[in-house]
DNA sequence: AATAATCATCGTACATTTGCGATGATTGTC
DNA sequence: GACAATCATCGCAAATGTACGATGATTATT
Protein backbone atom coordinates (compact mmCIF):
# COMPACT_ATOMS: atom_id res chain seq x y z
CA UNK A 1 0.00 0.00 0.00
CA UNK A 2 1.71 3.14 1.26
CA UNK A 3 -0.22 5.64 -0.76
CA UNK A 4 0.14 9.36 -0.68
CA UNK A 5 -2.35 11.43 1.17
CA UNK A 6 -3.08 14.79 -0.47
CA UNK A 7 -0.89 16.54 2.03
CA UNK A 8 2.31 14.65 1.34
CA UNK A 9 3.12 17.00 -1.51
CA UNK A 10 3.68 19.79 0.94
CA UNK A 11 6.60 18.04 2.59
CA UNK A 12 10.17 17.70 1.42
CA UNK A 13 10.38 14.80 -1.06
CA UNK A 14 13.27 13.32 0.89
CA UNK A 15 11.18 13.23 4.03
CA UNK A 16 8.33 11.63 2.14
CA UNK A 17 10.62 8.95 0.77
CA UNK A 18 12.20 8.31 4.14
CA UNK A 19 8.78 8.04 5.73
CA UNK A 20 7.84 5.55 3.04
CA UNK A 21 10.76 3.33 3.97
CA UNK A 22 10.03 3.64 7.66
CA UNK A 23 6.42 2.79 7.05
CA UNK A 24 7.38 -0.31 5.10
CA UNK A 25 9.33 -1.48 8.13
CA UNK A 26 6.77 -0.42 10.71
CA UNK A 27 5.48 -3.89 11.48
CA UNK A 28 7.18 -6.78 13.31
CA UNK A 29 6.26 -9.20 10.54
CA UNK A 30 7.96 -7.11 7.89
CA UNK A 31 11.02 -6.66 10.05
CA UNK A 32 11.14 -10.41 10.59
CA UNK A 33 10.85 -10.95 6.85
CA UNK A 34 13.71 -8.58 6.11
CA UNK A 35 15.86 -10.33 8.70
CA UNK A 36 15.02 -13.71 7.21
CA UNK A 37 15.94 -12.58 3.72
CA UNK A 38 19.13 -10.98 4.95
CA UNK A 39 20.22 -14.23 6.53
CA UNK A 40 19.19 -16.65 3.84
CA UNK A 41 20.07 -14.44 0.92
CA UNK A 42 17.14 -15.89 -0.94
CA UNK A 43 14.01 -17.43 0.40
CA UNK A 44 10.92 -19.21 -0.76
CA UNK A 45 7.68 -17.58 0.21
CA UNK A 46 6.40 -20.70 1.88
CA UNK A 47 9.41 -20.80 4.21
CA UNK A 48 8.56 -17.30 5.32
CA UNK A 49 4.99 -18.33 6.06
CA UNK A 50 6.28 -21.17 8.22
CA UNK A 51 8.41 -18.80 10.26
CA UNK A 52 5.69 -16.28 10.98
CA UNK A 53 2.65 -16.58 13.25
CA UNK A 54 0.34 -15.37 10.52
CA UNK A 55 -1.89 -16.82 7.83
CA UNK A 56 -0.46 -17.25 4.38
CA UNK A 57 -2.66 -14.55 2.92
CA UNK A 58 -1.53 -12.09 5.54
CA UNK A 59 2.12 -12.85 4.92
CA UNK A 60 1.50 -12.36 1.23
CA UNK A 61 0.08 -8.97 2.04
CA UNK A 62 3.18 -7.95 3.99
CA UNK A 63 5.39 -9.18 1.18
CA UNK A 64 3.40 -7.04 -1.20
CA UNK A 65 4.00 -3.98 0.90
CA UNK A 66 7.71 -4.58 1.13
CA UNK A 67 7.74 -5.11 -2.61
CA UNK A 68 5.80 -1.95 -3.36
CA UNK A 69 8.23 -0.02 -1.19
CA UNK A 70 10.96 -1.51 -3.34
CA UNK A 71 12.77 -3.22 -0.51
CA UNK A 72 12.35 -6.75 -1.82
CA UNK A 73 11.66 -8.49 -5.09
CA UNK A 74 10.26 -11.85 -6.07
CA UNK A 75 11.10 -14.13 -8.93
CA UNK A 76 8.72 -16.83 -9.99
CA UNK A 77 10.04 -20.36 -10.18
CA UNK A 78 6.88 -22.40 -10.17
CA UNK A 79 5.27 -23.54 -8.17
CA UNK A 80 7.13 -21.44 -5.63
CA UNK A 81 8.25 -17.84 -5.53
CA UNK A 82 11.72 -16.86 -4.46
CA UNK A 83 12.00 -13.61 -2.59
CA UNK A 84 15.13 -11.64 -2.01
CA UNK A 85 16.16 -8.22 -0.88
CA UNK A 86 16.35 -5.61 -3.60
CA UNK A 87 19.93 -4.70 -2.85
CA UNK A 88 20.03 -1.53 -4.88
CA UNK A 89 16.99 0.01 -3.24
CA UNK A 90 17.90 -1.35 0.15
CA UNK A 91 21.25 0.40 -0.04
CA UNK A 92 19.48 3.61 -0.95
CA UNK A 93 17.10 3.19 1.93
CA UNK A 94 19.90 2.45 4.37
CA UNK A 95 21.78 5.55 3.28
CA UNK A 96 18.71 7.71 3.72
CA UNK A 97 18.02 6.24 7.14
CA UNK A 98 21.62 6.53 8.25
CA UNK A 99 21.77 10.11 7.10
CA UNK A 100 18.72 10.80 9.19
CA UNK A 101 20.23 9.11 12.22
CA UNK A 102 23.29 11.37 12.24
CA UNK B 1 -1.08 5.56 19.65
CA UNK B 2 0.86 2.56 18.38
CA UNK B 3 -1.09 -0.07 20.23
CA UNK B 4 -0.47 -3.75 20.16
CA UNK B 5 -2.62 -5.98 18.07
CA UNK B 6 -3.24 -9.40 19.62
CA UNK B 7 -0.65 -10.92 17.32
CA UNK B 8 2.27 -8.76 18.35
CA UNK B 9 2.97 -11.06 21.26
CA UNK B 10 3.93 -13.78 18.83
CA UNK B 11 6.86 -11.82 17.50
CA UNK B 12 10.28 -11.26 18.97
CA UNK B 13 10.07 -8.36 21.46
CA UNK B 14 13.02 -6.68 19.79
CA UNK B 15 11.24 -6.72 16.46
CA UNK B 16 8.12 -5.32 18.09
CA UNK B 17 10.09 -2.49 19.65
CA UNK B 18 11.93 -1.75 16.44
CA UNK B 19 8.66 -1.69 14.54
CA UNK B 20 7.33 0.73 17.11
CA UNK B 21 10.17 3.14 16.47
CA UNK B 22 9.83 2.77 12.72
CA UNK B 23 6.13 3.42 12.98
CA UNK B 24 6.70 6.55 15.00
CA UNK B 25 8.85 7.86 12.16
CA UNK B 26 6.61 6.65 9.36
CA UNK B 27 5.22 10.04 8.48
CA UNK B 28 6.88 13.03 6.80
CA UNK B 29 5.55 15.38 9.46
CA UNK B 30 7.12 13.40 12.26
CA UNK B 31 10.39 13.16 10.41
CA UNK B 32 10.32 16.90 9.85
CA UNK B 33 9.64 17.43 13.54
CA UNK B 34 12.56 15.24 14.57
CA UNK B 35 14.82 17.12 12.17
CA UNK B 36 13.63 20.44 13.57
CA UNK B 37 14.28 19.37 17.13
CA UNK B 38 17.68 17.98 16.21
CA UNK B 39 18.69 21.29 14.73
CA UNK B 40 17.25 23.62 17.27
CA UNK B 41 17.99 21.51 20.29
CA UNK B 42 14.80 22.76 21.87
CA UNK B 43 11.73 24.08 20.23
CA UNK B 44 8.44 25.64 21.09
CA UNK B 45 5.39 23.83 19.81
CA UNK B 46 4.09 26.87 18.02
CA UNK B 47 7.31 27.15 15.99
CA UNK B 48 6.79 23.61 14.82
CA UNK B 49 3.25 24.39 13.75
CA UNK B 50 4.56 27.32 11.70
CA UNK B 51 7.01 25.09 9.87
CA UNK B 52 4.55 22.41 8.91
CA UNK B 53 1.72 22.50 6.35
CA UNK B 54 -0.73 21.16 8.88
CA UNK B 55 -3.31 22.46 11.32
CA UNK B 56 -2.27 22.99 14.90
CA UNK B 57 -4.39 20.14 16.16
CA UNK B 58 -2.86 17.76 13.67
CA UNK B 59 0.66 18.76 14.63
CA UNK B 60 -0.27 18.24 18.24
CA UNK B 61 -1.36 14.74 17.36
CA UNK B 62 1.95 13.95 15.69
CA UNK B 63 3.79 15.31 18.68
CA UNK B 64 1.73 13.05 20.88
CA UNK B 65 2.72 10.02 18.86
CA UNK B 66 6.39 10.86 18.97
CA UNK B 67 6.03 11.39 22.68
CA UNK B 68 4.25 8.11 23.28
CA UNK B 69 6.98 6.33 21.34
CA UNK B 70 9.39 7.99 23.73
CA UNK B 71 11.34 9.83 21.07
CA UNK B 72 10.56 13.32 22.33
CA UNK B 73 9.48 15.00 25.49
CA UNK B 74 7.78 18.25 26.33
CA UNK B 75 8.17 20.61 29.24
CA UNK B 76 5.54 23.15 30.05
CA UNK B 77 6.61 26.77 30.32
CA UNK B 78 3.34 28.61 30.05
CA UNK B 79 1.82 29.59 27.90
CA UNK B 80 4.04 27.64 25.57
CA UNK B 81 5.41 24.11 25.58
CA UNK B 82 9.03 23.35 24.85
CA UNK B 83 9.70 20.13 23.04
CA UNK B 84 12.99 18.35 22.75
CA UNK B 85 14.36 15.01 21.73
CA UNK B 86 14.46 12.42 24.49
CA UNK B 87 18.14 11.75 24.07
CA UNK B 88 18.26 8.59 26.12
CA UNK B 89 15.49 6.86 24.21
CA UNK B 90 16.61 8.26 20.93
CA UNK B 91 20.03 6.75 21.42
CA UNK B 92 18.41 3.43 22.20
CA UNK B 93 16.25 3.69 19.09
CA UNK B 94 19.23 4.61 16.94
CA UNK B 95 21.20 1.65 18.19
CA UNK B 96 18.33 -0.72 17.47
CA UNK B 97 17.88 0.72 14.01
CA UNK B 98 21.56 0.66 13.22
CA UNK B 99 21.84 -2.91 14.39
CA UNK B 100 19.04 -3.79 12.04
CA UNK B 101 20.72 -2.00 9.16
CA UNK B 102 23.89 -4.07 9.41
C1' DA C 1 -7.01 -34.84 -17.01
C1' DA C 2 -7.09 -35.06 -12.12
C1' DT C 3 -4.33 -33.82 -8.05
C1' DA C 4 -1.25 -31.47 -5.06
C1' DA C 5 1.59 -27.53 -4.02
C1' DT C 6 2.49 -22.77 -3.94
C1' DC C 7 1.20 -18.21 -3.92
C1' DA C 8 -1.73 -13.99 -5.14
C1' DT C 9 -5.96 -11.80 -4.83
C1' DC C 10 -10.74 -10.99 -3.29
C1' DG C 11 -14.01 -9.99 0.11
C1' DT C 12 -14.94 -8.91 4.68
C1' DA C 13 -14.50 -7.20 9.42
C1' DC C 14 -12.44 -4.39 12.59
C1' DA C 15 -8.93 -1.21 14.33
C1' DT C 16 -5.90 2.55 13.57
C1' DT C 17 -4.30 6.76 11.35
C1' DT C 18 -4.78 11.23 9.52
C1' DG C 19 -6.82 15.54 9.09
C1' DC C 20 -9.63 19.45 10.49
C1' DG C 21 -12.57 22.67 13.20
C1' DA C 22 -14.32 23.51 17.60
C1' DT C 23 -13.78 23.62 22.26
C1' DG C 24 -11.13 23.40 26.86
C1' DA C 25 -7.49 24.35 29.80
C1' DT C 26 -3.81 27.12 31.43
C1' DT C 27 -1.30 31.22 32.17
C1' DG C 28 0.43 35.98 31.39
C1' DT C 29 -1.17 40.70 30.35
C1' DC C 30 -4.08 44.48 30.42
C1' DG D 1 -11.82 39.83 35.87
C1' DA D 2 -11.71 40.20 30.67
C1' DC D 3 -8.52 39.06 26.97
C1' DA D 4 -5.04 37.05 24.14
C1' DA D 5 -1.79 33.32 23.39
C1' DT D 6 -0.55 28.63 23.44
C1' DC D 7 -1.52 24.00 23.30
C1' DA D 8 -4.28 19.61 24.23
C1' DT D 9 -8.31 17.18 23.52
C1' DC D 10 -12.83 16.02 21.48
C1' DG D 11 -15.72 14.78 17.75
C1' DC D 12 -16.14 13.66 13.29
C1' DA D 13 -15.06 11.92 8.45
C1' DA D 14 -12.31 9.56 5.38
C1' DA D 15 -8.53 6.73 4.32
C1' DT D 16 -5.26 2.86 5.59
C1' DG D 17 -3.73 -1.12 7.87
C1' DT D 18 -4.23 -5.81 9.65
C1' DA D 19 -5.99 -10.25 9.68
C1' DC D 20 -8.42 -14.24 8.00
C1' DG D 21 -10.88 -17.66 4.99
C1' DA D 22 -12.10 -18.57 0.41
C1' DT D 23 -11.09 -18.61 -4.15
C1' DG D 24 -8.00 -18.23 -8.46
C1' DA D 25 -4.03 -18.98 -10.99
C1' DT D 26 -0.02 -21.51 -12.21
C1' DT D 27 2.73 -25.49 -12.74
C1' DA D 28 4.76 -30.15 -11.65
C1' DT D 29 3.41 -34.78 -10.74
C1' DT D 30 0.73 -38.67 -11.22
Descriptive overview:
The structure is a homodimer of 102-residue chains. The first copy, chain A, has 102 residues and is of the alpha+beta class. Chain A has a single domain (12-101), classed as Orthogonal Bundle (Arc Repressor Mutant, subunit A), CATH 1.10.10.10. Helices cover 59% and strands 14% of the residues of chain A. The first copy, chain A, contains 5 helices and 3 strands, in the order ααβααββα. The first copy, chain A, has helices at residues 13-24, 28-40, 45-51, 56-68, 87-101, and strands at residues 43-44, 72-77, 80-85. The first copy, chain A, has a 3-stranded antiparallel sheet. In chain A, a hairpin with a 2-residue loop joins β2 (72-77) and β3 (80-85). The longest helix of chain A has 15 residues, at 87-101. The mean pLDDT of chain A is 90. At the A-B interface, α1, α2 and α5 of A face α1, α2 and α5 of B. Chain A binds a DNA duplex (30 and 30 nucleotides) through residues 1-3, 5-7, 27, 29, 44-46, 49, 54-65, 74, 76, 78-81.
